[in-house]
Write a structure and sequence with these properties.
single chain; 182 residues; Aminopeptidase; 7-stranded mixed β-sheet; 4 helices; 7 strands; globular; binds coenzyme A
Length: 182
């Protein structure tokens, strides 16, 4: 799929986007290097999850040519109160659109919005074999803060995970994000 990056729009997800969001997530499930879910979801099964992402932990989609081609979301790191300024996040891009800068556009948006929402730090956990996701984290200057060995068991194999973290500066002090350079 050819992507003209300047035509990609990131906006809050609507309920009508849910089938596309779930389709893209299910591709990640099938690929086996992105998530620990082992089977597909239906949109109905993700309805509760969608509603959980309408407040402090939003869900955004990347729209291109009237189609949803990717999404990103913040999630609680831990429900205990003292973790309230820390968030986890996920980013999924349609298989046909990967490697064309959509993840970069979504990640830039996520960082800006997380800062505006007042989070102090954002973290994510990535399969150590997920080269694109690791490249995306490093591109934005996330720090690798951990490497846990064999914490995932999938299809008869143990897989390592790496942990990335970014401390968010207040909006006025933000450093320049990587340019939209693709
Ligand atoms: C990981 C993912 C979100 C990245 O989004 P993307 O749109 O593919 O990423 P981009 O095109 O913006 O590329 C980001 C960086 O990844 C690297 N990259 C791109 N294609 C790559 C490839 N085939 N192999 C390794 N690294 C690659 C590049 O460093 C690139 O930055 P650059 O072009 O400025 O050098 C997307 O590939 C995806 O949805 N993968 C499946 C689901 C997943 O793994 N989600 C993350 C779970 S932790």
């Amino acid at each position: 799929m050819e992507i003209e990056q300047e035509m990609v729009q990131v906006r809050k997800a609507r309920i009508t986007d849910l089938p596309a969001i779930v389709e893209i997530y299910n591709q990640g499930v099938e690929d086996g290097i992105a998530t620990c879910d082992l089977s597909d979801f239906t949109p109905d099964e993700r309805y509760g999850w969608f509603n959980d992402h309408q407040g402090r932990y939003p869900l955004w989609v990347a729209e291109y040519a009237n189609a949803v081609i990717g999404w990103t979301t913040l999630s609680p790191y831990d429900v205990k109160a003292c973790f309230s300024l820390t968030a986890m996040f996920s980013t999924y891009v349609h298989r046909e659109a990967r490697g064309r800068g959509v993840g970069t556009i979504l990640r830039r948006h996520l960082i800006e919005e997380a800062r505006k929402l007042g989070f102090h730090t954002i973290v994510n956990r990535v399969f150590a074999v997920n080269e694109r996701s690791i490249a995306l984290a490093k591109k934005f200057g996330f720090t690798q803060v951990g490497h846990m060995r064999e914490i995932v068991y999938r299809d008869g194999q143990f897989i390592d995970c790496v942990f990335f973290q970014m401390l968010l500066e207040p909006a006025g002090d933000a450093k320049e994000s990587p340019a939209n350079d693709k």
